[in-house]
Amino acid sequence: MACRLTDFHLIMDCGLDQFHQEAYGTSFAAAAAGILGCVGSTIMADWSTGLFDCFSDCSLCCQTAFCPCITFGRSAEIIQKGACSCGGNCLLYLLVHHVSGCLITILFGYFHRRTLRRDFGLKSSPCPDFCVHCFCHYCALCQENRELKNHGFDMKIGYDANVQKQQNRGVTMAPMNEEGMKR
């Protein structure tokens, strides 16, 4: 049986995957793959946007070009599941980038990209994560941010507010007609 994470893409888009992750410690897509007999096989999905699709979101592109610490901070807060705030990640990126140079910043980006790929079952493309951040650091930051947006995260409100927003999202039902059905 050929298994692809794209088969479970709708599950991840509606927020069920994150809920399942928090409740049971494993992603719903991974659990579904296990049920379908795909245990041990590699399940990888394509990124929702390409590495060089920076201009698909011009405001994000400009933000990353002039202040990459904000793009990194917002993405890192969600990737770290709120362990460190956007401001903390932003400040850390800014200090490391200007004090110790680019190599440590590239390593930060590499570790966060690797975590994002693992959490969402994404392919290591177009090349290994370290190379992506080494040669196309700002493009990688933009792609990671867009990927989180495309998975339903609002990058401006932070991790806790996103979790709250997803928990408040209920199943919407058709309105009830008090009089019953008529022809």
UniProtKB/TrEMBL annotation:
Q: Which UniProt keywords apply?
A: Membrane, Transmembrane, Transmembrane helix
The record's annotation in InterPro entries points to: PLAC_motif_containing
Kindly list the residue ranges recorded as spanning the membrane: 91-111
Which is an annotated Pfam family here? PLAC8
The name on file for this protein is: PLAC8 motif-containing protein
Organism for this UniProt entry = Corchorus capsularis (Jute)
